[in-house]
Amino acid sequence: MTLPTLGLVGLGKIARDQHIPAIAATGLFQLAAVVSPDGASTDGVPTFRSQAEMLAALPGLDAVALCTPPAVRHGLTVEALRAGKHVLIEKPPAATLSELHDLVAEAETARRTLFTAWHSQFNPAVEETKRRLAEADIRSVAITWKEDVRRWHPGQDWIFAAGGFGVFDPGINALSILTDILPAPVFVRAAELHAPANRDTPIAATLEMSAAPGSRIGRVTADFDFLQQGEQTWSIVIETEDGRLDLTHGGTRLTVDGVPVLAEPDTEYQRIYRHFHRLIGDGASDVDARPLSLVADACMVGRWHRTDAFDW
Ligand code: NAP
User: Fold this and answer.
1) Residue 11 Cα to ligand 1 middle (Å)
2) In the chain, which stretches have pLDDT less than 70?
């Protein structure tokens, strides 16, 4: 059986850590090319300096996976869709909501699959939490997403440049879990955003969210920090009338009232490629704008503060 061919655009940390191993492990796509502006390569696969060069050289390519920083995603996605390719986009799927809405229209016109891969949503512990919350009375949700940017994103200056999301680059993973597990939408009511004096994007942020009046969801908060020393924390604590759920380790482990319920090995990217393959087979798209909307809303209603300059 001939596998659909895929080009990987952007050969950085996430492409190497997750995409290439997941493509190999699932065996659903043939990795046919990579695109790397600085000419980086991976074993046995041709490298192109730009997506345009790859599309011209490999007209039969079926799909692309975009693993670049978000600021260049809109242009690359439009280019790929118009060339007739199915497109998987790493999170966050675009730099702005307008760009994302445009991509939905482009995919419809091109009749190709567009998949915004919010990877954290693909953890079994997230699915189980969603199932348990479907009928629950939720008193509160507290997100704590604190990591050391120097450890996890060394030298990635794009994160602190306009359009790079700053602390929302990891924080949006928590928001993608939040929008997935809650039975009703929540809205950002207030936010405090702290940007270093020499950078464009926030290095820390707190969000206050709530649902529409009359819903079964109480106070929802998020605390994002990019300067966390010591223990790194990616957790969501949910207090319900029936007990407490702790979704920890980036949404990969679930504990209910202190009792471990789910702790799966990290297979989220394999699930992503299986879902992408299924969507292509079904002639469908899967685009979720909610996490990006919450970040945009935080920037609209939030108060901005200048804080100490940041250097690596
Ligand atoms: P990264 O290590 O900086 O890699 C980004 C890569 O994209 C670089 O190799 C860069 O090449 C390339 N690139 C930039 N513009 C390009 C273009 N126009 N065409 C082709 N390639 C281009 O960043 P990353 O950590 O992999 O993150 C990439 C995306 O994945 C981000 O949106 C991030 O939020 C997401 N993500 C990251 C992680 C993680 O753990 N790091 C986890 C999940 C998701 P040059 O260096 O040559 O410019």
Assistant:
1) 7
2) none
**Domains of the chain, first to last:** 5-117 (3.40.50.720), 123-264+296-307 (3.30.360.10)
pLDDT in tens, 207-230: 999 999 999 999 999 999 999 999
DSSP 127-192: HHHHHHHTT--EEEEEEEEE-BHHHHSTT-GGGGSTTS-TTHHHHHHHHHHHHHH-SS-EEEEEEE
Contact of 60 with 259, CB cutoff 8 Å = no
- The residue nearest atom 32 of ligand 1, judged by CA position, is 69
Pocket test for ligand 1, best of 11, 38, 67 (most atoms within 8 A of CB): 67
pLDDT single digits (tens) 153-195: 999 999 999 999 999 999 999 999 999 999 999 999 999 999 9
* Cα–Cα nearest to 187, from 295, 71, 66: 295
Closest to 121 (Cα-Cα) out of 183, 68, 174, 185? 174
